[in-house]
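Question: what's this shape?

___
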Amino acid sequence: MRNRIACRHLKPVGCVAGPPARAVHYHGGVKALAFSLLVLAACGRDYGQIDKFIGAACTRDADCDDRCYVNSNTFPGGFCSVACSSNNDCPGDAVCVDKAGGVCLFLCTELNCNDLGPGWQCRDEDTLGGSGKFNVCIGD
């Protein structure tokens, strides 16, 4: 389900609806415009938003848009997120942290970690690929 909407998981600069469809007649043009607006709206995820894409509590993958990370120490209560290999794979309010093979976690500057539930806190963690440390929401 990761690519359900083509650019939902990309940072906002990566969201492009693509070339406009040629309208043969009025109704076709309206449909193309409506589709383009839908794709662009999916790219405009609010920063610090807890949802089934990233941040919601979970117990199994079916609870999330992509994957449920369950480790009581690292992800208290379960954590919906996406696997990543670089920060470009994460939404703009998250970075790719070197946990669980690479997982997008919220930056503390974008979200109050307490909003994720008990056991969550801000800590400096290494990013995957060694691009430095970032202050992210993670378990105790």
Observations:
- The two ends are 30 Å apart (CA to CA).
- The first strand starts at residue 67 and ends at 71.
- The chain has one helix and six strands.
- The chain has two domains: 12-43, 61-139.
